[in-house]
Structure formats: structure tokens, C-alpha cells
Amino acid sequence: MKTTHHSLDDLFGQQVARALSGKLDQMPYDIQERLRAARMRAVAARRVAPIWVTRSNTQTLGDGTLTLGAPWKGWTPLASLFPIGLLLVGLLTINAVLDDHRAHEVAEIDAALLTDDLPPNAYTDPGFLQFLKLQNTDSAED
Fold this sequence. Notes:
By secondary structure, the chain is mostly helical. It has helices spanning about 5-20, 30-45, 75-115, 125-140; strands at about 60, 65. β1 (about 60) and β2 (about 65) form a beta hairpin. The N and C termini lie far apart (about 105 Å).
């Protein structure tokens, strides 16, 4: 069995208490009363266990905002601007990609028109549109 430092202190205290209690009857009354009062103070001090206070890393500001213990409260508005900036960068990137996609589509249509057998002016002619409609209905009936 292993004895700890704390249990050795307790054993020593018990031995001193036995030695004092054994010769207590031989001592004068005023010394007995002082020893009794000292024993009561020691027992009262022994019963008080130390209270360990831990500090949390989170703090609550006056407006109920939960923070992670920031040393300067000015970082909170700056930290809230970060997601907004990230959102703006994302939206601008999406806009640039869509514009590029539209430009490629228009370029493909232009290339198809210019390489086709018909001149580009034929597509703007109202009679040609009527001709295309009639051809679509004739092929649908067959």
C-alpha cells in the first residue's frame, strides 16, 4: 500500500492529537480551554475546502452577444464584415463566369451564322421567318 504525502500529514496530526489529549487532564484549566479553542479553529479551517474557480473562454457582452473572449470589442464589427466581403467576392466571381459563358454562346452563334450557307441578312428578313415556319409545319405533317 502506497502512502501519500497527504496521509503522512494526517498520521502526524493524529499522533500529536493523541499526545496532547493523553496529558490534557494534567494541564491547568486555562491551557485546556486555549487548546480546545485552537483545536476548534483548526477543525473549522480544515473543513473549508479550497474553491477552484475556472475562467471560461467565452464572454457575454452587455447586449447578449457571446464572444470567444476577444481582448478588444472592436474586432466584432470587423469580424462581421469578413463574411460580407466573402459574399461579395463570390457574387462578383459568379457574375464574371456567367458573362464569360454568355460571350462564348454568342460567339458560337456568330460562328454558326457566318459559316452557314445563308447570308446573315436572311435571318432578319420577315419572309424568311415565314418560310422557316412553313417548312417546320410541312415536315411535321409528313
